[in-house]
Fold these 3 entries.
Entry 1:
Amino acid sequence: MLLEERKNKIMNLLKVNGKVTSKELSEQLHVSEVTIRSDLKRLEAEQLLKRVHGGAIRMKPELFDPRFQEQIAVDKEEKREIGKKAVSFVDKNDVIFVDAGSSTLFFVEELVKAPPLNITVVTNSLYVINEIVQYGDIRLIVLGGMFYKKSLNFLDLDMSPLLTKYNVNRIFLGVNGLDEKGIYSTSNIEARINKELYSTNAEIFILASSSKFFKRSLILINEWQGREKIITSDQNKNENERLNILKQEKSLEIF
């Protein structure tokens, strides 16, 4: 394979995956790892990628790519575990609302691997839209509104009628913090919309990694109602005692 052909294939793989390894490229392109390292060095000199140990990453990840949100997320391993747990609560024929955020994105990434039959995802998150639109086995409904570039979602203060219209039966929310009082957001408008979500009869699942526990953010979304299910990681051991107290006092379920 000629050099230019290899370079094009490397860049296409980077565009899709965000990163590549020398070993994988060597196997796919049928050349030695020495040749691949030389190719990566040339591409880095052209400022098309950045070499890292064992391979390379995309030089400028695209803001609207779900993988960019995954790359910058904190508590990644916890969030992957949370995502896998959350998928177990999705059943055949469910209509679920998925909020914006890195925790819910990890959840969606797990969901698309083996989605239950006839499920519908309702969302206002550009990241979630971009992830799910690639898969034909999931029905996708997008809620409109003003696009907020900071959070990359569409926000409309009058979402409740739409959620009722689509018979959403489960809601998966990411939060910026939670404590003994309730759950928090950094955005006033997002908090108001999430509060509207509480006005539905849907089951509410809070996806929260350890960095969100017993931390207050700018706006209180809602006080605990005793209907919430908190999905967290088994890797988090530091707050188990406080979580158990919260569970008992507020009649919450914690998984």
Note: The chain has a mean pLDDT of 88.
Entry 2:
Amino acid sequence: MKSPKLIFLLLTTFPVFFSCYIYCQYYVEAIIPVGSYPIALARNTINNKIYCANWGSNTITVINANNNQIITTIRSGSQPRALVYNNINNKIYCANQQSNDVSIINGATNEVLNTISVGSRPTALAYNSVSNKIYCANASSNNVSVIDGINDNLITNVLVGYFPSTLVYNPTNNKIYCANMDNECVTKKCTI
């Protein structure tokens, strides 16, 4: 039979050990200075880079995730707002809110390859890995632009609800869902 003293010791030290286990395993490893108003992140899974869209400075900071060092800073369009990574062609897509376009960045060289005009005030991106398409929610034109990930051109614009603000791709049914802020609904669109 255990002594009451031993039981008391276990009961009082276990919560301290348990709390330290929960809280001590999380900490800030590095603080990386980037541009003004960082607003979006994307991860390049091929070469372990992090891309940070800096809304206020019209740039994208590229970070080496192996050592948390800045690799380079890329000029984007005006007010970069959202990022998405395409692992099929190793490209990063950046929705530029003020210039109404999407910048396409080479994930190997970090160079802007092309810029595609989309709707008014693009605010969100989603990537369909099955059909290799990029979807861009355009808040002020109430539509979603569909971009072909193979040759990076605009396929079409799909009308959705008012002020589309967020997109998500569901690989189970191969559909894109769009949250429309001004009419409080979610639009489900079949993949185009």
Note: The chain has one domain: 30-190.
Entry 3:
Amino acid sequence: MAFLRAIASAFINYFNFRGRANRREFWYWVGFVILLWLVLLYVDLNYMAPMLGYMPMEEGVPNYLSDGWLLIAAIPTLSLIVRRMHDHDEPGWKALIILPLSYWLVAKGDKDPNRYG
């Protein structure tokens, strides 16, 4: 799956907790979220701060853009994690188990169709 297609898929499936998501789709989304968050944090600290009466990079500057982006990205990230769990033929609630979660996010999913698609 191409990078832009993976990002579009995450937004199209914003509230979709059914089906499956492959590793590439998940990791492209994570990279996009982090990259955009860093860009927006830079804008917040260097450009928005003076507009709000703070010095650039001053401690305590409200990060409206970067924090807003994290709120917007939270639900599609959660839905991708659940669909990533489904790719391993596991129910989404198992995402609450922290230790094996990293394995399921990185490992290759089932080749054959399973009960989630």
Note: The chain has a mean pLDDT of 89.
